[in-house]
Amino acid sequence: MLLKLDFGSDQPIYMQIRNQIVLGIAQRQLRPGERLPTIRALAEECGINMMTVSKAYQLLRQEGYIATDRRLGAVVAEREEPAGPSRETVEGLRLRLGELRLAGLDVDQALRLCRELYEEGEG
Amino acid sequence: MNITVFVWLVAAPVAVLLCIVNCNEAKFKKNLVVGVTFPLKGRMDPEVQRLLKGFRRAQILLCLGMLALAALCAALLGEGTELLALCLWVDLLMAAQFVIYARYNGRLKAVKRARDWTVPAVRAASVTAAAAPVKRPGVWWFVAAAVIAAVPAALDRELWFSYLLDAALALGCWAGAKYLYRNRSETVDENDAVTAALTRVRRRAWDRVWVLCAWMMAAVSLGIWLSTAVVPAGGAMVWLTAALGIGVCAVAVALELRVRRVQEKLTASSGEGFYVDEDDKWLWGQVYYDPNDSRTIVNARTGVNTTVNLARPGGKAVAVFTLALLFVAMPLLGVYVNMMSAAPLPLKIEDGALVAANYGARYEMPLDEIADAELLDTLPAITARVWGVGMDSLLKGTFQTQWGRATLCLDPREGPWLKVTMADGTLYILGGGENAGVESVLAQIQQ
Questions:
Q1: Which of B87, B91, B92 is nearest to B8 (CA)?
Q2: Residue A6 in domain
Q3: Do A67 and A96 sit in the same domain of this protein?
Q4: What is the rounded average pLDDT for all residues in chain B?
Q5: What value does the mean pLDDT take over residues A35-50?
Q6: What's the Cα-to-Cα distance from B331 to each of A40, B13, B396, rounded to whole Å?
Q7: pLDDT class of B320 with cuts at 50, 70, 90
Q8: pLDDT digit string, tens, across residues B138-161
Q9: Same domain for A92 and A50?
């Protein structure tokens, strides 16, 4: 799986890492139980500070996307019982749907787009 | 063979090796050619092909020109000026090849812009490759080489420093392998298998170069011991060092080209869809400058080599040091050696002591401590230089001779020379030539 970091973007780097790992898990590029790089290795790979990677991992751990294994380090968490979207996710979706409405999409077009994007994750 | 011809024979292949490596830059690998990233469709563009042909031709012409210049220098320059000429020759070679590369890099970038092949700059990082375990050579490879390099120190106390220095350098190779490599995957596109293969090939080649260097140090140490203590032979150390140096350079270039060939094959079909383009981070295609990269040491874009990030303070320091060494210190050293070798070596008696002096060195031998002094018409066989200067026109420092260790400050081209044995057994051989005043000094000593 490839991270594409944009240093010119307004979005902080740790958030770009977090978002792309979440997308990677959703699109099954990263499988449950799969080992993630150590903080040092990913910092070396990206050419960024270890604190930045640590911050992204901390966020992913808090959100339950990754877990820390004593032997393997950080691994993609097993999500046996999906707990449903968080309040932040629902609010984010509400905002995006509003943007789609303003962009001129009707409900069918918006749902079609959502379906296409959702199915991308199913490979 | 005199030292001038020897120096140029050793130096000239550098131009050929550099030409081979640079011409290889004109082959597509990792979507790169002469430091410019192109999509797959750009490889057969007639304008790109024309520029690549011109680049290769310019490199070959440069190589031939530098070889001709080297031959002229070897034939025409007098003794003592070879080091200065060599330093200027190396500087000219480096500067010229840099300018040619930068020029063609700029032209290819212009073609890329004109065809609208520039892609948005993002930094690609492979999570899969970064998570993969890294296998590096064990420290024992280096420790074993260091031990072998150090063994002669116990058998030959005369040159112990040289043997232990080789052993330390063998251990230094371990540090080089570990700390001079940027542990970043070789990401070209989204193909994880290609990324893993490219990373593995480069890392292995890097480790091999350092292991090879460590064992070369062991070989040098053993070679010095064999050629000085076991089978003494004049000049053997110089030949041995030169042969090993050329051998290691040849192996390193062969390894570099091999890695490049693998990179070429593995990325032959890359360049469609998403592909990594970091052209804006590489000034003139050769100098890495990325303020957003926190690392000082970075991997060169193709091959095995390492370079520095000029946006980091450490990178700037390395660049300034290298440039100062190459374009200031080396020519100045050449001038200094030239003046040193041309300086006379007169002997004189001052304040009850025999004095021999030459640039930066002064040997004083109190007359009442001199046990014996005699004229020499021929010099003893000199088997090794412990430290000091060894040139066609000047031998200065401590040398191993057929009479044992001796301090030399002489012009070896023309006798007579003065052999001075001190009461404590220390041996000096001084002077050389009519102007040194050897005979009159000997008469004064005998009085």
A1: B87
A2: no
A3: no
A4: 88
A5: 93
A6: 43, 20, 21
A7: very high
A8: 899 999 999 999 999 998 877 788
A9: no
Q: What average pLDDT does the segment B238-251 reach? A: 78
Shortest CA gap B292–chain A (Å)? 7
B125 and A5: CB-CB below 8 Å?
yes
Together in a domain, A55 and A104:
no
Residue type present at position B249: C
Q: ipTM strictly over 0.90?
A: no
Tens of pLDDT, residue by residue over A106-120, are 989 999 998 888 887
Q: Is residue A33 part of a domain?
A: yes
A70 shares a domain with A18: yes
The mean pLDDT of B392-416, rounded to a whole number, is 85
What 8-state DSSP symbol labels residue B42? G
Cα torsion A102, A105, A108, A109: sign: negative
Residue A97's domain comprises 87-120
What pLDDT does B443 receive? 85
Residues from chain A contacting residue B126 (CB–CB below 8 Å): 1-3, 45
How far is Cα B103 from Cα B99, in angstroms, rounded to an integer? 6
At A123 the pLDDT is 56
Q: How far is CA A54 from CA A43, A51, B397, B426, in A?
A: 9, 5, 58, 66
> Residue B46: which H helix or E strand, with range?
helix B46-76
Whichever domain contains A29, its CATH number is 1.10.10.10
A26 and A58, same domain (yes or no): yes
pTM for the full predicted model: 0.81
CA distance B411 to A37: 64
Q: B63-72, B329-338, B346-355: which has the highest mean pLDDT? A: B63-72
Q: Is residue A3 part of a domain?
A: no
Residue A4 counted as domain residue: no
Are residues B33 and B108 in contact, defined by beta-carbon separation less than 8 angstroms?
yes
Substitution target from B123, B190, B203 for chain A, most A beta carbons within 10 A: B123
Number of domains in chain A: 2
**A107 and A72 assigned to the same domain:** no
Give the distance from residue B190's alpha carbon to the nearest chain A alpha carbon, in angstroms. Answer: 6
